[in-house]
Amino acid sequence: MTEPPGRRERKKAATRQKIADTALRLFLDRGYDAVGIRDVAAEADVAVTTLFSHFASKEALVFEQDDNFEQRLTQAVTNRAPHEPLIPALRREIQEMVRHCTADGTVPIYRMIDESRALREYEESMRLRHADSLATAIAADPGLSQTTTACRTIARFVIDAYSLAREADDPQAAVDEIFQMIEAAWEVT
């Protein structure tokens, strides 16, 4: 059984969340480019060094769930039940991530991302990193015998499925359609 986090960990998590929430509010109110790191730190009532101890860059403030998403993707591979097929496990995780990222209130955030070159570039590098982590987890699975190329390809397809579905008129239907193609591709490897 997992022990609940201690007081220090709870305070650290609360500070991180306060910084992220403050940054997002300021970015949406004033525009991403109009808000600096010092503005976020001052509004969140933390030192700039504290902000940087939680977030590596200004862009990271917008994608504060980045590490969580990456971890969830790899755990969809590593924590699935014995003999559970890979693709359905990944599909469930992508469905949850798409549901989270298409919830009410997310449209302004993605509009802000689309309007900022720095945020688009950061998101692309983040997706490539997620695909690499996912490919590594798939390749390390002893129950799977696909080549490194096949693992990397499927990982990229899965990450792209998330992006494409998030932008679709019917995100959940898009996940279903895309994963039919991913399943077919996986079966021929």
Order of helices and strands: HHHHHHHHHH
| Overall pLDDT | 91
Instruction: Give the CA-CA distance, first to last residue.
Output: 38 Å
The portion of residues forming beta strands comes to under 5%
Please give the count of helices: 10
What features would you describe in this structure?
This protein is mainly alpha-helical and 189 residues long. Helix content is 76%, strand content 0%. The protein is built from 10 helices and no strands. The longest helix is centred in the N-terminal third of the chain and has 24 residues, at 7-30. It is globular, with a radius of gyration of 18 Å.
Sequence-ordered SSE layout with sheet pairings:
Layout: H1 7-30, H2 37-44, H3 48-54, H4 58-62, H5 66-78, H6 86-101, H7 107-115, H8 117-140, H9 148-167, H10 171-187
Structure summarized in a few sentences:
The chain is an all-alpha fold and 189 residues long. The chain has helices at residues 7-30, 37-44, 48-54, 58-62, 66-78, 86-101, 107-115, 117-140, 148-167, 171-187.
Which keywords apply here?
189 residues, mainly alpha, 76% helix, globular
